[in-house]
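Regression test attached.
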Amino acid sequence: MRILVALDTNPYSTYVVHEVAKLAMNTWADVTLLGVDSKRPDISNHTAGSLRNIPIVKKMVKFRKEFLSYFTDKDTSPYEKRQQAYELVELDKGLWEEFSVCRSRKEFRVRVRFGPPAKQVLAEAEEEQSDLIVVGCSKGDRCAWEQDRNAPEKIVKGAPCSVLVVKEEKKPNKIVCCLDHDSVSQESLELINQMVTLHQTELAIVGLTESDRLKEEVDQKMKQILQYYTDQKIKAWVSVVDVSLLDQFIPDAAEKGLIALWMGPRSILGKFFSQDRVGRLIRTAQSSVLILR
Amino acid sequence: MINILVSVKPDLASSIAIRYAGQLGKLMEIGLQPIHVKEPEQKGNLFGTGWVRHTWEHVLTEKGEEEINQLIRAEKPNCPALAAPRVVLGDREEEILRELQAGAYDLFMEGALASFNVNDFRNLVRSKLYQGVPCPIVVVKNLVPVEKTSLLLYEGMDAHRLIEEYVRVFKEAKLALDLFYYTPENLDTIHITESDLSELPLDSAKQLLEEAQLLPRSTQRIAGPPQQIGEYLADYALVGAAIRDEAGKKNPILTVLARTPSPVFIC
């Protein structure tokens, strides 16, 4: 799994780094910490050394240390550089040089991008083919980023992969997964599994019904998911919600725990739980939100 | 032996109900008779007459048998007491009532996934089937480990009837029992206080518990929003209440039972 963590210099980003480190301890994911600043520095006035004085760059150094502090055992850390090898690197057209390169079992990168935050995060996710983007947001009634209030919402809407929007300092006591279609990826099931383990929380699987009818394929998929989690020794509650009550249900569920929406290509969530509704949920959620693709 | 009639369809809810019965079967002797009613897609007058109708009915019943046998085969290891299914064609409620009245059943059971819409549960309790069932009912919403049970009492409820039915069905299982006495106070959050069995207006019901050696391990007074109470009771393998006579009224206990994700015992 490749996790892209979108960060800025605000406290919610510090919280996200710690949450992702805990998730990475369980998943051994390839992780990229991406610092984003909307103001582009004047490159002509900067050397690599002076770039280190830019707040986001300074912050990323701190984030790197904080993330790696979860992996202090060098023998077991997937991010410990251990395999030294010589690799040819093209320095200029036709000019190659052999470099001594140290690699870890899993990739861990720290990057910085300048420009509109959501656009930069989405570009990075696209280029790196991330499986999951994790982005923090402020606590309270609104879920926002400082430099672009709606960045979390824009990332969720534009991302080609799953997105976890982490509400600052809000530990979920329940993970509520909504399902309305039968194409659920194994990766998303495992991600939920990890989230449940990480937060030591309860899991609820909610099937969406239309006119009180639960589609046969959704019923069967819920059965498989329930069996999967039962085999993993995870207690999962099952229930149903009619799509006509989604507007009442989602805020109610989001108040208590992390809400996860399986939004596959065939999802009626895409139809009934429109982009506007997703946006509203992201903006107003009282807890973290996970969009699974 | 407790004879249970379980209504089944080829779906998740029925699978959960059978597994729940399987857990009960490890604690007490049960006989579990599944029934599946295949309803004709076209309601009202049945298709054709004579041989044509007979053949059509036969085909529908066979189709229903096929679907259910698959479920029974899959669930049999989880519930050895599961008998061969009875598959009939007709109106679901009427056929189940007919079977319950004809057979000597102690309990009717069915799976129904917990619904966010409280009215779904209200409508279930108000249905002709639930109002006509001659024995207590267990609505299995989730598969909860059968360890502890709870009974929900409130002022004006027939506590004797609830406890009598509970004792009759679950006496052999000797499950841990907690009693909750609900008081309809206007509170923002749930409020629970320890109480003493002798303080509750149980009258003769107390004697039933004593005779069956099923004295509750705790007795508590509970108040607060029905939704929160329902969620609080989530860990119980059974939440019981005598509510069938209250189906038409705006009784908050109905909301509690609708909101709890646990299996519900009603009489």
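Expected vs. actual: identical. The mean pLDDT of chain B is 89.
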